[in-house]
Write a structure and sequence with these properties.
Blueprint: H1 2-5, H2 9-69, H3 72-75, H4 83-94, E1 100-109, E2 113-125, H5 127-138, E3 144-153, E4 160-171
Helix pairs in contact: 4-5
């Protein structure tokens, strides 16, 4: 206060005007800062709201895809028969003559699946018979796939030598067998 007493009237007015400007700036900057934070938060909320709308809109498409593909467990519910039987039936239906056929050992694929494979060769076939055979194997309704295919051209027209591997995928049940709960000789108390 001693500093203000030693100042002239004009200097006191200038200092008080400067103080008023400082206080006014503080009073204006506080609400402006709050308004800026609110606008940023509102923008973030709008972006989140738009993302939620997009997710809600995509649920129908995801459900349709799941329905089209089917549940994984239901795809593997019907276990493929012995591959030799399936191959012979498909070969006879398409007019294909299998020269050699050999089973490969079953391989584990993850914790729940095993792969059974059969290698086969066809010495001489036409393209139509081969395509019919491949289509009948793929659309057999079992979890079967042609995992390797090697087609070589022969000298004759529409004649090919084919080597392929056909695999069947089996799913094991993840639940272990239940242990017996009681014995035949035990009595209840």
């Amino acid at each position: 206060m001693a500093l203000l007493d030693s100042m002239s009237a004009r200097e006191r007015r200038l200092v008080s005007a400067l103080g008023g400007i400082f206080v006014g700036a503080l009073l204006l900057l506080g609400p402006l800062q709050v308004r800026g934070c609110l606008l940023a938060r509102e923008k973030q909320n709008d972006e989140l709201r738009q993302a939620i709308i997009e997710v809600q809109g995509a649920r129908g498409r995801v459900a349709a895809r799941r329905a089209a593909m089917g549940d994984i467990a239901s795809r593997y519910a019907k276990q493929a028969p012995v591959l030799a039987t399936l191959i012979d039936q498909s070969a006879k239906a398409s007019g294909l003559e299998v020269a050699t056929q050999s089973d490969m050992p079953a391989l584990p694929r993850g914790k729940l699946y095993t792969e059974r494979s059969t290698k086969l060769t066809v010495q001489k076939t036409g393209l139509k018979a081969l395509a019919t055979f491949l289509e009948s194997v793929e659309t057999s309704g079992y979890p079967v796939a042609i995992t390797q295919l090697d087609v070589g051209k022969r000298i004759e027209a529409d004649s090919f030598q084919v080597s392929m591997t056909i695999s069947a995928f089996d799913r094991q049940d993840a639940t272990p067998a239940a242990a017996p709960t009681g014995s035949a000789s035990g009595a209840k108390k």
